[in-house]
Amino acid sequence: MYGVFKPQAHKPRLPDDQIDPKYKRLRWQIFIGIFIGYAGYYFVRKNFGLAIPFLVEEGYSRGDLGVALSAISIAYGLSKFLMGSVSDRSNPRLFLPAGLAASAGIMFLLGFAPWATSSVAIMFGLLFLNGWFQGMGWPPCGRTMVHWWSHKERGQIVSFWNVAHNVGGGLIGPLFLLGMAWFNDWHSAFYVPAAAALFVACFALLTMRDTPQSEGLPPIEEWKNDYPPDYCEASEVELTAKEIFTKYILHNRLLWMIAFANVFVYMIRYGVLDWAPTYLKEVKGFAIDESSWAYFLYEWAGIPGTLLCGWVSDKVFGGRRAPAGVLFMVLVLVAVLVYWLNPYSTTIDMIALISIGFLIYGPVMLIGLHALELAPKKAAGTAAGFTGLFGYLGGSVAASAALGYTVDWFGWTGGFTLLVVSCVLAIILIASTWNAENKVRAESH
């Protein structure tokens, strides 16, 4: 695979008078490419949650469907980590669109082939493949951002890029409703977003680029005169997989700490999102169109929430990630309790759900940003993939399978107890990085 996606060779350096205009133009173009490209991945990632209520009506249990749904998270967690290593040594312009097109192909099978939803085992297998291809999305975006934006501007650019999660994920609900209006077929939850994802893959291929050097430009550190404390010529040398793992991942204690915190952050993120259509229908009496719009609002509320969290981290807490993460997770805990315990008002249910979406994506973004900051740029995709491995194999799998069976056995009270405990553990783990983060920052100045 590495040979297929190998990095583009460096071009001769452009004359000085051409560097500034080309850098400025390409950075806008590339940002649009990775933003829309990654949003497209969400068109074909969480569709299965919208199909669960219909599959329950066909006789499947919530627990069995949760097991099938967990396949995406299991494969994605592994793939995001392993593909992160491949991505660090690959051309993101080819890597990202290839994964997106393959993921769309799996969704077309689920939408059009009757055998694809005929058993839990088949659904698990197809969703596992989908999750693996999904792992080809985040790492090339991380590699792109650390090559095209310097250290001092990276926090802001990652915050803005991170809302691509919400743009893409939020559009699933309206795309599903559009498919239902056109075809009156719940399988359109798969094939309508898949068609949109193929279009996005083509767009990303046209707009993305590899490193600045592959376009005849100097490294971003030189162009912005923004050099990290440990920057040297070796920072521009591609690393082997062994060097990345042994030097910058396995012995990075702070990276391990935020990875464990990510387990519980993802448990809440997907525990609420994946089961929202089912919970709102069964417990709160929402119609399918109401729950689809709730799904949309949950995701899109994360856009201003993520930007606010990044601003709070940079401006209020001086670039420290732990205080902002703790603040937002405490507020998530309050919103989860209201979403669970409110017995009467559908309006309050919607406000609570939107509030969770508004708040949870900030900590998700901070953990990803922190991972990028804890490794050299040639290892950035692997570092991000490492925290993602924990988030998806631990948190998202539990949100799918463990939460589904918990609700089957203990009702929604048991499910929400699991979410509340996850909130508390996330707060404790993020807070445990507070002093360590201060120490690292002090050593770097």
Notes on the structure:
It is built from 18 helices and no strands. It has helices at residues 16-43, 47-57, 62-87, 92-112, 120-134, 138-148, 151-162, 164-170, 172-183, 188-207, 220-224, 241-249, 253-282, 288-316, 321-341, 346-373, 380-431, 434-443. The protein is globular and about 65 Å long.
Produce a short descriptive summary.
The chain is an all-alpha fold and 445 residues long. It has helices at 16-43, 47-57, 62-87, 92-112, 120-134, 138-148, 151-162, 164-170, 172-183, 188-207, 220-224, 241-249, 253-282, 288-316, 321-341, 346-373, 380-431, 434-443.
What's the overall geometry? Answer: globular
Helix percent band: over 70%
**Class of secondary structure makeup:** mainly alpha
Mean pLDDT: 82
Tally of alpha and pi helices = 18
Strand content: under 5%
Strand-and-helix sequence, N→C? HHHHHHHHHHHHHHHHHH
Computed CA radius of gyration, to the nearest angstrom: 21 Å
**Gap from first CA to last CA:** 40 Å
Q: How many individual β-strands?
A: 0
Give a short account of the largest sheet.
none
Report the uncertain regions. none
What are the key terms here?
445 residues, mainly alpha
List the helices and strands and how they pair.
Elements: H1 16-43, H2 47-57, H3 62-87, H4 92-112, H5 120-134, H6 138-148, H7 151-162, H8 164-170, H9 172-183, H10 188-207, H11 220-224, H12 241-249, H13 253-282, H14 288-316, H15 321-341, H16 346-373, H17 380-431, H18 434-443
Helix pairs in contact: 1-4, 1-6, 1-8, 1-10, 2-13, 3-5, 3-6, 3-17, 4-5, 4-6, 4-10, 6-17, 7-14, 7-16, 8-14, 9-10, 9-14, 13-14, 13-16, 13-17, 14-15, 14-16, 15-16, 15-17, 16-17
